[in-house]
Amino acid sequence: xxxxxxxxxxxxxxxxxxxxxxxxxxxxxxxxxxxxxxxxxxxxxxxxxxxxxxxxxxxxxxxxxxxxxxxxxxxxxxxxxxxxxxxxxxxxxxxxxxxxxxxxxxxxxxxxxxxxxxxxxxxxxxxxxxxxxxxxxxxxxxxxxxxxxxxxxxxxxxxxxxxxxxxxxxxxxxxxxxxxxxxxxxxxxxxxxxxxxxxxxxxxxxxxxxxxxxxxxxxxxxxxxxxxxxxxxxxxxxxxxxxxxxxxxxxxxxxxxxxxxxxxxxxxxxxxxxxxxxxxxxxxxxxxxxxxxxxxxxxxxxxxxxxxxxxxxxxxxxxxxxxxxxxxxxxxxxxxxxxxxxxxxxxxxxxxxxxxxxxxxxxxxxxxxxxxxxxxxxxxxxxxxxxxxxxxxxxxxxxxxxxxxxxxxxxxxxxxxxxxxxxxxxxxxxxxxxxxxxxxxxxxxxxxxxxxxxxxxxxxxxxxxxxxxxxxxxxxxxxxxxxxxxxxxxxxxxxxxxxxxxxxxxxxxxxxxxxxxxxxxxxxxxxxxxxxxxxxxxxxxxxxxxxxxxxxxxxxxxxxxxxxxxxxxxxxxxxxxxxxxxxxxxxxxxxxxxxxxxxxxxxxxxxxxxxxxxxxxxxxxxxxxxxxxxxxxxxxxxxxxxxxxxxxxxxxxxxxxxxxx
Length: 661
Prior knowledge:
Blueprint: H1 7-20, H2 31-57, E1 65-67, E2 76-78, H3 82-105, H4 114-133, H5 137-155, H6 162-193, H7 209-226, H8 235-241, H9 244-266, H10 274-296, H11 301-329, H12 332-367, H13 378-381, H14 383-396, H15 404-421, H16 430-453, H17 460-463, H18 470-488, H19 490-505, H20 518-548, H21 572-575, H22 577-582, H23 584-587, E3 589-592, E4 608-611, H24 614-630, H25 642-660
Antiparallel strand pairs: 1-2, 3-4
């Protein structure tokens, strides 16, 4: 068979090339050259896979391949469909951008662990591609474990840091707990269908007890990987402590593997029960609101971005839950709006979140810290980075006319339709929830952008910032341009996800179903693009006009202070204090105040503030501590005395004999 240009073959070749791309970086004597070869191979894999995706999106049908391996689980199938194509597109894009970013941010000439980083980055991307192409439960689990372990080794690149080691341990426990649930899922799938191969779409009944266990196992196993609450506890520490390009891949890509897994398993069943849709809708709303409330109280830039990933994953699950409720209640409008909103937000989040994480890498590289309150005034020193981060910040807030608004628009339309037609419009509560989440997102990212880029430098490192090289800025420019293009041409974004929506819903997309909502949809999307074009033109015009004006340096008003210093500026905590206090149980602020006696505070008195992680600090950590203490007495039985061990065996046999009698 001629495989030249066959889409699935191109994608499989790209996956293999990406997985092996890190091998040249392991050569110790040619570290710099090996890193350059690694980048070349990774970008080549992205371009090769992009060619296969282009053929799939233009109507070419991908072939199905059978892997006859020697394992006793039957042959493994590999294939593509519109659902996997939707997730492969951002995967190849972000993998290539992260590879281009690495040599400048983590150069092999000065970092001894650069070879490890590039090697596991390739395995990470290749494992995710195989997850999306696998159509067999065992092969899926193998690829899933490659992805999970590669992410662990990437996360723990800086092994000397105790915080990194702790974050890696928590991630490893969380990911393998989720994998245990997936073992249950695929074992039950084998028991029901007689094979580990994925069954055809909409063929299994969801109402048997075994099916309910499968659905719950899928929700636990894949929800833990997606960072869906309450399985999110590993995410802030992992994303904050990983290298920035790894954080970009974990947030923009790996979290989506959890979303893909839930969608793929749900596709096996005919009509999912109503509780499933309501559960996903509730968990999505909880994750969106709690995630952005946690982000609002953060002082660590990367931890702030990590918590906002929980919010965005929650928005995706709101759309999935809305579509499941629509399919059970006979409302094709909710199905269409929910899937459109979820799938568009999947693509958008894979654009603006890697942009922001790569931007955080530029800031960490330049200032040497992740603390917001040690930055400041960086817009003058890093003007290109400031503009690119502004694009990402506006997009992630879901504000028109950036691309983040397009997906949420469909969720608003679905909630509006439910409010007009449903006897008990509970789905309509999605609209105020999204509005509240959007408002908190604006507060969060205005705080972050203002503290980082505006005002005066808050530390000496911020005054002497190290400027990034072209290799770090170029991937950010590409992602920012794609964000702007998606906002300028939102109808193109709709057409991009339309095949996946039709495939997953099992029916062709019919826009006439929107009824009274259809007429304003087209003008709203068109107006979004025109408004963005107008804003870009006005910004360019203002920039050109500003350069023609005479410049001078004058002191600003010091608010009555004779010698103002950067210490009198608003901090990130003070800016978001009102919002954090309003959502205190969600944001979990922890303050340590000094005891004041007399007119002036005592020497050494200090005020501390941090956003706590309630589930991790108040539930899981005490649980493991108590378990360790409860079972510590078992260590006394392991004393190394052989004659006592023989006595244990004799006592056990005696008890068994008595029990048998």
